Amino acid sequence: MRVKRGNVARNRRKKVLKLAKGFRGGLSKLFRPARQAVINALRHAYKGRRQKKRDFRSMWIVRMNAALVGYGISYSKFIGLATQKHMEVNRKMLSEIAISDPEVFSSIVTWVQA
């Protein structure tokens, strides 16, 4: 007896081509190259979600280091002193404070240095 697969193959291909929407050239139109491109794209997306966290943390550190130059203290010394004082504010909030409210940041720096 012959087996009719129905919509299974078409649905599988449509799913891959939907994920490949926006890719250039045949990568968005042809199934075989689209499947390879989607596999690579999903792999890079997985890596990118982890890389994003590292990028943001390094950006916060660079911002704080730039803000601390005026106070004559390096970022590493500041963080070391802050951990000794058991400061609860994280790097993200400290960098935001350094940008948006320099007066509060200067009071934090003087408190940490004291």
Which structural class should the secondary elements be placed in? mainly alpha
Count the helices. How many? 5
Strand content: under 5%
Radius of gyration, whole Å: 25 Å
Number of strands: 0
CATH superfamily membership: Ribosomal protein L20, C-terminal domain
Summarize the structure.
The protein has helices spanning 8-19, 31-68, 75-84, 91-100, 102-113. The chain is mainly α.
Description of the structure:
The radius of gyration is 25 Å and the shape is rod-shaped. The protein has 114 residues and is mainly α. The N and C termini lie far apart (86 Å). The chain has a single domain, classed as Orthogonal Bundle (c-terminal domain of poly(a) binding protein), CATH 1.10.1900.20. 72% of the residues lie in helices and 0% in strands. Helix 1 runs parallel beside helix 2, helix 2 crosses helix 4 and helix 4 crosses helix 5.
Q: Main traits of this protein?
A:
114 residues; mainly alpha; c-terminal domain of poly(a) binding protein; 5 helices
Write the layout of secondary structure elements.
Layout: H1 8-19, H2 31-68, H3 75-84, H4 91-100, H5 102-113
